[in-house]
Every structure is written in structure tokens, then in C-alpha cells.
């Protein structure tokens, strides 16, 4: 059994022409750092898959302050308009290719984070606050997932 943690980036600056370049706000940095500390105590993620967008990269960097990753990769499959089926298939492929990693953290954006939860655990499509993390248990033998919970910075 593996654990998949799907995280929305921390609070970001308002929309602008270059969406990919948006930075985290001061609150967003604090959300990411708080969730990183919570993740280190509760889930100990050891693999990271992250969107190339600046705010997701900044979130991952803040989370990494309290976590060590055996595997880390940036993928354009996790951009906001990405296809959740492609992202889920890629994640499952990485899980199979890296059996030494037991807890996978995915850092991305709305709406793909919600769609990705639904893709992995059909019928479950939570709405993510900034910095929130959905917890999914994944059986790599059957390739079946079970949505467990969603945790926001205000609740940990």
C-alpha cells in the first residue's frame, strides 16, 4: 500500500497575463511551510512530483524544508489545464518504477488537483483551499485507490 498526497499550492498573487510566473504571497509561503511540517510528522513523504509553475515550485521548496525526498521530478502534466488521466497514469508509472518510495507528494493547482483525486478515486472530487492536502491510499497491486481525507492549513 502506498500513500498519495495531492497538494494545492499555497496562496498566490492575483491572476496576471503570465499565470505560470505567479508567486506565492507571504501567507502562501506560511501555508506551505506549515503543511510541510505537518506532512513530516504525519506522512513523511519520500517522493515529490510537482508542476513547473512558480507558485507550485515555491510550495514544494517550502515543504522540502521539513521533508527529504528520494525521488523528485517536475512535470508539465500537472499544470492547471493538464489532463488528470494523463497525470494519474504518469504517477502510477512512477510509483511502479520507484518501489522504494512509499509516500508520494503531488504539488499542483486547481482544478487538476480535484480532477486527479477523482481520477484516482472515482466519485471523490474535493475542493482544495490553498495549501490543502488530500490523502489517498493506493494499492499498487490492484491499482485501486481510496480517498481518505483532505487537510487544510487552518485545520492542522
Automatic annotation (TrEMBL):
CDD domains named in the record: HP_PGM_like (cd07067)
Coiled coil feature spans: none
Example of a GO MF term: protein histidine phosphatase activity
One Pfam family this sequence matches: His_Phos_1
Signal peptide interval: none
InterPro entries: His_Pase_superF_clade-1, His_PPase_superfam, SixA
GO CC field: cytoplasm
The name this protein goes by in its record: Phosphohistidine phosphatase SixA
Organism of provenance: Pseudoalteromonas aliena
Amino acid at each position: 500500500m502506498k500513500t498519495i498526497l495531492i497538494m494545492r499550492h499555497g496562496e498566490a498573487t492575483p491572476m496576471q497575463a503570465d499565470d505560470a510566473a505567479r508567486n506565492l504571497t507571504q501567507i502562501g509561503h506560511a501555508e506551505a511551510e506549515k503543511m510541510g511540517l505537518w506532512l513530516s510528522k504525519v506522512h513523511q513523504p519520500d517522493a515529490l512530483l510537482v508542476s513547473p509553475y512558480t507558485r507550485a515550485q515555491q510550495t514544494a521548496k517550502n515543504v522540502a524544508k521539513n521533508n527529504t525526498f528520494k525521488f523528485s521530478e517536475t512535470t508539465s502534466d500537472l499544470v492547471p489545464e493538464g489532463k488528470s488521466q494523463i497525470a494519474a497514469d504518469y504517477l502510477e508509472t512512477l510509483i511502479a518504477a520507484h518501489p522504494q518510495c512509499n509516500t508520494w507528494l503531488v504539488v499542483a493547482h486547481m482544478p487538476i488537483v480535484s480532477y486527479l483525486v477523482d481520477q484516482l478515486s472515482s466519485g471523490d472530487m474535493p475542493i482544495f483551499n490553498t495549501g490543502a492536502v488530500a490523502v489517498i491510499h493506493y494499492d499498487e497491486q490492484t491499482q485501486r485507490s481510496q480517498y481518505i481525507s483532505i487537510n487544510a492549513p487552518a485545520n492542522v
